[in-house]
Amino acid sequence: MSAHPLTLHPLRFAPEEIREVVALYAGNPAYWRAAGEYDPDDIPAAQVEADLRREVAMEGGEVLLARTGEGRLVGVVCLLRRHPKDGLPWIGLLIVDGHSRRTGIGRRLVGLVEERFRAEGRSGLRLAVLENNPDALTFWKSLGWREIDRRQDLAHDRPCIVMHKHLA
Fold it and tell me: CA-to-CA distance for 44 and 26, rounded, in angstroms?
């Protein structure tokens, strides 16, 4: 699988891209049930677009689409280049197409994000995993991330596990 290219592209908010993101989100009903942000059976494109526009409106916020060499959308990642409290970059969301789970796409996507910040000389990277999402915790731990704190997330007051990866 790693022989096939995976590239990251900034979300341009074209209607077709939003439709692709909604379809990708819909392929992850368990995540949305755990997160509580969307009804997995009815994910409104307008709300997805508004939420993603809020991500990019934050200082240093980015939304990137992960595509295969054939152009198929297989992942979405929301990044914050510099967290206002710790100065480190954060992954706000990393979600892989439900049909691509357990194929190595998520691992490769994380690798691209880590390499990007490593190339910029960043020393570490952080994210928060919902406590009610043990599969995600297992995934991140398998990639060498470690738990450093537990606290409520700012946006929705959900219990989270803050994780860190040293990049140097």
Answer: 10
DSSP state of 82: S
Confidence at residue 74, expressed as pLDDT on a 0 to 100 scale: 96
The one-character DSSP state at 86 is T
Please give the full DSSP string across 92-147, using - where no structure is assigned.
Answer: EEEEE-GGGTTTTHHHHHHHHHHHHHHHTT--EEEEEEETT-HHHHHHHHHTT-EE
pTM attached to this predicted model: 0.92
SS3 63: strand
**Which amino acid, residue 89?**
P
Q: What angle do CA 144, 145, 147 make, to 5 degrees?
A: 135
Q: Look at residue 89 and tell me whether its pLDDT is greater than 70.
A: yes
Q: What is the pLDDT of residues 27-68, one digit of tens each?
A: 999 889 888 889 999 999 999 999 999 999 999 999 999 999
Q: How much of the chain is in helix, strand and coil states, percent to nearest 5?
A: 35, 30, 35
pLDDT confidence band for 1 (50 / 70 / 90): very low
Distance between CA atoms of 84 and 81, rounded to whole angstroms?
10
